[in-house]
Amino acid sequence: MAPPQRILFPPEKICMDWQQRQRAGAGLHNLGNMCFLNSILQCLTYTPPLANYLLSREHSQSCHQQGFCMMCRMEDHVNKVLHSSNSAIHPWAVISVLTRIGEHFQLGMQEDAHEFLRYTVDAMQRACLSGTSE
Question: Structure pTM?
Fold first, then answer.
């Protein structure tokens, strides 16, 4: 197998455990048929290696992407959830860009959680790759 052309996250920088002890963050309000989105956001928010990176705000500090950036949106979301004193929040950071994640996603329509995960991770990967040099 050929080595990767680029390494976005060197293995030595990836921490599989929480870097800071986290209490349970805010829940997410269901805005009508949006449980597919909420379940995926909860899974991503509580995945320690991803959450550690998003909580550091490392991406947004060096992001040069014009307009929509899924990593910046996820940073906003994860920081809001884990630092909120509210019991639940509206996930507007992600809902407001639903059609940018996948043009067929619509507010209030039932969708497949697995499909939303695939589109979200793909958008996050594109955001990371667009910020690297060849």
Answer: 0.86
